[in-house]
Amino acid sequence: MIKGYQLDKLLYAVKKDENLRERFLRDFDAACLDFHLSDEEKSALKSRDYAALCELGAKDELILFLARLSKK
Question: What is the Cα–Cα distance from 68 to 3, expressed in whole angstroms?
Answer without folding.
Answer: 23
